Amino acid sequence: MDILIIEDNEELGQLIYDFISNSGYSTEWVKSAEDALDRLSDNTYKLLLLDVMLPGQDGFMALAKIRKEHNMPVLMMSARTDDDSKILGMETGADDYIAKPFSIPVLLSKIKALMRRTYGEDMDRTLSYEGLKVDIMGRTVTKNDKPLDITGKEFDILIYLMQNKGKVVDKKELFDNVWGYYSDTEMSSLNVYIRWLREKLEDDPKEPKYIKTVWRVGYKFGD
Q1: CATH assignment of 126-221, given 3.40.50.300, 1.10.10.10, 2.60.120.1680, 2.40.128.50?
Q2: Is 76 helix (H, G, I), strand (E, B) or coil?
Q3: What are the pLDDT tens digits along the chain (223 aa)?
Q4: Cα(45)–Cα(43) distance, rounded to whole angstroms?
Q5: Where do the domains of the chain lie?
Q6: What would be the CATH architecture of the domain defined by 3-119?
């Protein structure tokens, strides 16, 4: 098994699980430190995604116990962004730390970096469709071999839509995966970023062939 997710929030945990599973990793998800410790006693995982604020034992207590027997990389997730919390996580044995709210593509990039650093695995991936090529790790986009200036949230939106090519993606799903479930940003910002992205991608932004609008639902990439 590749990844064990320990996250008690139902909606966020489902988002993370779905995205990581769709990215090709074998994944399990539990909602408490106690369940995680039980799974670790019977299974081997390459990486743990560990939330700090959990019912019962918190992530710091769980990590201290995990480190007594296991050496796999641990990526901590927390809404606590103060330096003391980050330092405590690292000193307890975390390999990396990501602050909530986070975009799911950024989380995936951190996972790939930890996997590559720990196991020497070539996790670089390229997405392509009708002349469009996206280097996920290099965070570059080309169209017909010409570079496009697509960065930040525009890049994260493009990755998510391309990884769900042919599927209608609900606006809220797309927003939560790119900006993070707890983001204070208004969801209307998504429309603006889609417009900017189309202006860079499409030959005719008014007749898009890459990012299509599904009326009152969301967006679909490609056919």
Answers
A1: 1.10.10.10
A2: strand
A3: 789 999 999 999 999 998 888 887 889 999 999 999 999 988 889 999 999 989 888 888 999 999 888 888 999 998 876 667 667 767 778 888 898 888 888 898 889 888 888 877 554 568 899 999 998 767 889 999 999 999 888 988 998 899 888 999 999 989 888 887 666 778 889 999 999 999 999 999 999 999 999 998 999 999 7
A4: 7
A5: 3-119, 126-221
A6: 3-Layer(aba) Sandwich (3.40)
